[in-house]
Design brief:
five-stranded antiparallel β-sheet; alpha+beta
Length: 109
């Protein structure tokens, strides 16, 4: 895994993704290697390494990101009856780019 899959692959266009929702600053798309039957990732288009590295000046972007996460979570919940919204920090975070998983179902692996 690269240090920042999202910048290096997704946002650069090297890896094609199936978009769920997109705004000027946020992209939500189906995970390229899903761990759950429904597995959507939401990312800011600007590089932010992690939830704990957010700065005061990132607040507007964070609100936009959470608006997208909320809409996607509502869509997944409407279709499936439930969902989980997950982020990872530190050693649990494979790609060092802030991202959230919106998932439904039991893990596939």
């Amino acid at each position: 895994m690269t240090e920042d899959f999202y910048c290096e692959e997704v946002l650069s266009g090297k890896t094609t993704v199936k978009k769920v929702m997109e705004t000027e600053n946020v992209l939500a798309y189906y995970h390229t290697r899903p761990f759950y039957p429904v597995h959507i990732v939401a990312i800011p288009k600007m590089h932010i390494p992690s939830l704990i590295t957010l700065q005061e000046e990132d607040n507007e972007l964070l609100v936009e990101l959470f608006c997208v996460i909320k809409k996607v979570a509502a869509m997944v919940t409407e279709e499936n009856g439930a969902c989980r919204v997950i982020t990872n920090i530190g050693n649990y975070q494979d790609s060092k780019h802030l991202h959230w998983h919106i998932v439904y179902g039991a893990p596939l692996r």
